[in-house]
Write a structure and sequence with these properties.
This protein is 47% helix and 13% strand. It has helices at 8-30, 56-67, 79-89, 106-120, 143-171, 193-213, 231-236, 239-247, 257-267, and strands at residues 47-51, 71-76, 96-100, 125-128, 174-179, 218-225, 279-282. Helix 2 crosses helix 9, helix 4 packs parallel to helix 5 (143-171) and helix 5 packs parallel to helix 6 (193-213).
Length: 289
């Protein structure tokens, strides 16, 4: 029986990752690179949009896309912090543009994506990271609290996807990664019912969009972080509880933003071309679906 020969568009990314893995091992062994500094794949010539890019997982995702060679469109409501992120990533090898916008506001979403299209003329990848994480006992949740969470964490994600998909469907190509949460799959913390509802909606929405996108050559996946060392977790969970939870995970600590970013960027590479409607859990073994 003749061996099956894969097309170059599948083989080349796999070989690239194999080379990156070998180089990563060498650099880690020699101590010249940390575990979160190695490039994940080759995204040169592609445009990656990252929401919530000023800090935390969003910032780490922007850095990971930059290491992969992508041009960057960075969105955040905090323009002053976003400017620092963009400045740190600026390089003659890539284009980095920042866009200040409140993604809880649908007209602002439409406006910022129109500006990005004017600037870059195409969308190759969208990482929907922007979110808020306020907690409240279920009996204390007000309509304003509910609406604030869902305006950004669910509605904002949906309409960012809609604007990206509008262009990607025309291109017949593109990838979207929506950041959900372990809270979408099981109760991991008291006082997070409203947040969990929004993130559960992101998971369901991602699957439906993946089904629609498949006919247009567009993939839509999600990443579910576990307890991650982020500003939101630090504000919502005590240091003692964070340490206790981290000790029970495989790394013996909380997940780092760079580890979540690695999963996001991987899903945007050609090596993940067979993944659509999937959910990657980056939880250190805290949740095993």
């Amino acid at each position: 029986m003749r061996p099956i020969e894969l097309p170059a568009r599948f083989v080349d990314p796999i070989r690239s990752i194999e080379r990156s893995a070998a180089e990563r091992y060498r650099d880690l062994k020699e101590g010249s690179m940390t575990a979160t500094e190695a490039p994940i794949g080759d995204l040169r010539g592609r445009v990656a949009i990252v929401t919530g890019a000023a800090r935390g997982i969003g910032k780490a995702t922007a850095e990971a896309f930059a290491r992969a060679g992508a041009d960057l469109a960075l969105i955040d409501v905090d323009e002053s912090v976003l400017e620092k992120t963009a400045a740190a990533l600026s390089s003659p090898d890539r284009r980095v543009e920042l866009f200040a916008a409140d993604l809880a506001n649908v007209p602002e979403i439409r406006g910022v994506f129109a500006r990005i299209e004017e600037t870059f003329a195409r969308f190759d990848a969208l990482a929907n990271v922007a979110a808020i994480y306020p907690v409240s006992p279920v009996l204390d949740v007000t309509e304003e609290h509910w609406d604030a969470i869902h305006a950004l964490d669910l509605r904002g994600v949906f309409f960012c996807c809609q604007e990206a998909l509008r262009r990607m469907f025309e291109q017949q190509s593109g990838t979207i990664v929506n950041v959900s949460s372990g809270s979408a799959y099981r109760a991991v913390q008291r006082d997070a019912a409203a947040y969990s509802a929004a993130k559960g909606g992101v998971v369901a929405m991602t699957r439906s969009m993946a089904l629609e996108g498949a006919a247009h050559g567009v993939r839509v996946n999600s990443v579910a972080p576990g307890y991650t060392e982020s500003d939101g977790i630090k504000a919502a969970v005590s240091e003692e509880d964070r340490a206790a939870h981290g000790a029970a995970l495989v790394p013996g600590r909380l997940i780092q933003p760079e580890e979540v970013a690695a999963a996001i960027v991987f899903l945007c590479t050609d090596a993940a071309s067979g993944m659509n409607g999937a959910a990657l859990h980056v939880s250190g073994g805290d949740f095993m679906p």
